Each structure stands twice: as C-alpha cells, then as structure tokens.
Amino acid sequence: MQSHRNRKLGKSVRTLTAGVAFALALATAAHAQVLEWAWTSSATLPTSLNVMMTPSVIDLNGDGTPDVVFGSTASTGGGLVEVGVLRAVDGASGTELFTVTDPTYQINTTSSVATGDIDGDGHPEIIACDSSGVQLIAFEHDGTFKWRSPALEAVNWGAPAIADLDQNGTPEIVVGRQALSATGAVLWTGTGGRGSQINVGPLSLVADVDDDGAPEVVAGNTVYSGAGAIESAGALPDGYNAVADFDADGQAEIVLVSSGAVWLLEADLSVKWGPVAIPGGGAGGPPTIADFDADGQPEVGVAGAVRYAVFETNGMLKWAAVTQDGSSNRTGSSVFDFDGDGAAEVVYGDEVKLWVYRGIDGVVLYETPLSSCTWYEYPLVADVDADNHAEIVAVANNNCGYGPQRGVYVFGDPTGGWVPTRRVWNQHTYHITNIAADGSVPAVELNNWDQPGLNNFRLNEFGGFGPYVWTIDKTADQTALTLSPGQTFLVNYTVHVTAVDGQDVDECAAVTDSVAGPLGTVCAVSSPFSYDFTYTASVGPYSVCGDYTVENTATLVTNDTGVTLSASWSVAVHVPCSTGCTLTQGYWKTHSRYGPAPYDDTWNLVGEDLPFFLSGQTWYRVLWTPPRGNVYYLLAHAYIAARLNVLNGASTTPAVIDALVQAEAFFASYTPAQASALTMSLRAHYVAVAGLLGRYNEGDVGPGHCSE
User: In the beta sheet, which residues pair with residue 289?
Assistant: First the structure.
C-alpha cells in the first residue's frame, strides 16, 4: 500500500475569475500537492486493485476516525457484475483494516456498499451485493460474515439503502423495489418501477415525500409505501431519483433522470416540469440537488455522455461542462461548498479525470487524471481523517483501458481552507438525515428539506466543528387542576430539545422522562436543530383531599461527552374535601311546602310552584309525575333532587357538575312530548346522565348520604 501525505505545502490558493478564493490548488499544480493518501497497492490479493463503486465512509472500529469501505477486483472488464473482495482502510492514512479473502464471501464490485448499524449492537454493518449479482450479503464491522439474502431481482450496478421503514427502531434494507429485514429476509417486492434504466441496476431512495409522517420508497417512476404498496405510479420511464423542496411548500418534489432527460415531479408523480434533455445526450446518471449559485434555491446536477449539466429550479439549463463518459453515461456526482460561500461546487469523475466545477457557472476549479470505465460511482466529500476539514474520496480503475490509475484516492486542501463537514457518507443515496454520525439509523428520519441549511441530495453538511450545544425545555397544557377524590386527568406534555454549533461531537442525545421513561435518541443533522417529543400522562387519582404537586423531569444526555441537562414541569392539583351530604328524591318530594313531612326551606331557593323549563308544569308537579318510560321525567326527578342537594350545601364532583349542565341543556331543548320521541341512542345517553345524578343523590358519588 502506497500512502502519499502532503498536508503542509504552502501553495497559494487559486484566484477565480469571479474573485472567489477556492482552496483546492492551482489547476496546473502537481497531483501530489493535494493528494493526502492513495490506496494503490496491497500485500493481500495484490492484483485486486480496481475500484468501481462509490465507497462508504464510516467509523467501523469506534476509534473516532472514519474508515473507507469499498470493493476491489482484479478484473479489467466492464460488465454488469465484476467479482472481487470487500476491503476497509483507515480514513486518516489508507492503512488496510481488513480484506475478506474467503472466496465464499466475494462481492460484486460494481454495486456500491451501504453501511449502518442494523442490529443495534453499536457498530455499523456492511451491506454489499454478492458475486452472483442477485443476492445481498452482510458483514459485521470487522468483515465477519453476517448473512446472505435469498435470490433477489438483479442488483448488478445497483446499491442497497438502509432506512427504518416501519419506524420501530430496527432498520430495513431497500434495493430497488424490494425490502429486506435486518436479518436478510425478503419483506416485500413491489410491482412498479425499480429505480433503474434498462436493468443495469436499481437505485431507490427512502424519504417521507408525501409528508404523512411515514417513509416511502421512491424507485424511478413509482412511489411505494413502507410496506410495499404502490402509492403513486407515473406514466414515465423508470430511472434515477433525488428529492428536495423546489417550491418552498414544505413538501418534497422528486427529480427523475431517464433516457437522456430530466423531470421534476410532485410527490404524486405529476409532472412539474420536464422532460428537459441533457446536453450532448447519454442516458444520464443519478442526480444531485444543491444550491449551486447561492440564490437560496435548489438546482439539479446530472452527468450525461459528454456534458455535466446543472438545471435551474424551474428546469432551465444553467450551464454544461465538457466531460467524457461514453462507456456508461450513467455516473453519479456529489456536491459540496468547500469555501463556505453558499454556492456548492460539483465533484465529478468521468472516464479519464476527477473534476471540480464551480457551481455558479461550471468553471473548472480542479482536474486530475483518474481513470474509470464508469458505472454508477461518484467521488464523495467527507471528513475522512477527522481533522475537521473536508476531503474528497475518489476511486479509479484501469478497466476498459481509459487510464492506468487504480484504487482509492483522498484529496485535501494543503492550506487547511476547506470547511468542516461530517465524518460519514454511508450509501449511494446519502442525504445527511438518513444516518447519524455514529452510524446509527434514525427510527424516524427527519426530512432533509425541512432542516435549516439543507434541502439537498448527495451533498454533505458544511459548517463549524466542536461539540453541539444542547438545550432542553418541558411544557404541558395544564398548570393547575382541581380533581375530585378518585378522579384522573390526562395532561399533554412536550419536551423540546435544540442543538447548535456542532460537528460530529455530541451530535446525538438520549432523552428520558421521569414519568414516560425513555423518549428516544435524537441526532442533530444541521445547525440549528430542534425536535419535540410529546406524550400524555395521567394525573391522579387521589383518595385523600388536599393539595398536591405533580412534577415531571425530562433529562438529556449527550452521546460523546455525557453532558446532562434537565427540565421540569409542575402541575398543581387541588382535591377539595367533601362538604355536606345528599338526600334522596323521596326526601325532597315529601319535604316541600305541601308536606306531608316537615318543610325543608331549601325549596325556597328554586320555588316549588315556578315553571320547570319547557314542561308546562311546576317543579313540584314534575317531581311527582310518574315517568312511565319517558326519559324526560326520569332525568327531571334525578336533576331536581341533585339541584336541591347542591343548594343545600352538598359538595359535587366534576362528573356531577357536567351531568347537571347536560340536564339543563336537555330541559332547555325538549318538552316531555318531544323527549318521548327521542332516538334510542339519545334516550340511552340521558338515562345514563340520570343514573349518575341518582347515584349522587343516593350518596354513592360525592360527599355521601345524610342521616335523614
């Protein structure tokens, strides 16, 4: 293994015609001036050096430095399947970590790998396509074989993606229109698009494109639910996708590239614009989305056969740069704002060179020989050596005779001028929010397009570095409650967490609650970041009257340094002590001014002879009228006694108060004749209201019955 390191050469940065300083290097400078290291030889399988996939960058061994995971082959062909081996190297030096040499576990090196923690063991697993081209194969973080899937639809150049489709905390693996469990079992196979062109291999992505809170699988001309049902299918060709919000409506649009053209589609696959032809032709490769010109709007970048083209938000061609990709004309690309000026640069590799183009106009900022027969691969940007500066990770092969370069190449800025970025790029359809910095897969993925500073696809985050600064706050919809003995009340709580100013240190935080227990772990994917946990908890019941305080505390603990924060919310609860006592309907019937029992002057507070609502009768006469099945009189008897009990000083409960209010609304709406014609359901409801008031009068509810 040759390792070229040159971090300290003091070459001046290139001054661009627009006056923007770009810290890559002079375009005419020697290759070694920006090459940090290159993996171009190996003592293990020394002829297996051709790399044709997009690698994955992730910390495999937990040492704090990312590693580069890729496949290599000795083949010099340009087929759908090229058999080789899985390798991993240290991101800081290119030193080999492992090579899986067992022929049983050979892989298809035209298919890009995906990495992420699929089994919750705290280490990322590696998902590749095996040498058959039709099965996925999984490896542990150290290269140990984990599982092999059943035969699938042809993967070939395609690539898996890892996401939690059912949001249960255990990720699934998606490849084309098929989904697999974390153990490799096939969960479903769709019946629409695969995310491919003429079956060279599928590239599907996972995102909540319809904003319903559940992820969808976008595969070319079809949108599937997380369970595999077709949600939308367009009368368009199959192809490659990316997603972002192009019209600032808070929902994603879908970019489709196929058959030499580009479309922008709504989430239901209706056409927003397109088809727009890729200049110079070619099938077209997987698209990127970024703000290429610092206008605050997303644009689309696509590679064709002889041009790399950027299209404006409305589909108009912005610029096109000359390239050479007659072999596949399906290569991908990535984008990154190296100098932090708000406009993303394009990083692209064709058959003969690695290119960096200025996003605003396509001016060549850097080029260096780097050969490939081209498949779906693209150079990516990540902080691969944990130095808080971005690097370019590119691959090369001498297949098809386009040049002599082979292996993996990492380029950096010798002046240290490139801005910081994340230390992870885990899969071909990478879009920042799909993976946490520690390699864990979010159970509920945040929409990239909703996050401040994002709204992009196949672009890595840029910004400051250092630990994220977190805050936590807790609120509820109640501050004080009055409950009767035995009563409960549901309170809705919100725990609000935020994070700012970080870069891969303390980027995740576990949040727990003293009442609800573990609420979950959230990872900041941009700065500023915020997230709300909500839950409902019962307050009460209390058997003894008095005043109580219910205090709930939420606690946040960051993943790297263990910073602990907490926030509390208190609810004051008053449980009034019972006063007075209740008397039955029979008591109140016989203790009016008409006797026969001694008069209870509580009757003076309502008046026996006053009209009772719409009944056409007095209070006294209503109380003495037999119900004979009419719910009006059944409810009136219970109501009159309850009303007199309250006026006599008996305490109530919230349920009794509610029953009294319902009864009064009933009497204000119905006469006895109208009440006799009520529907069965309404009659049953008011019978239940009468029953509650009856239990109050009997002393079963409330302060209890008096000794008459």
Answer: 300, 457
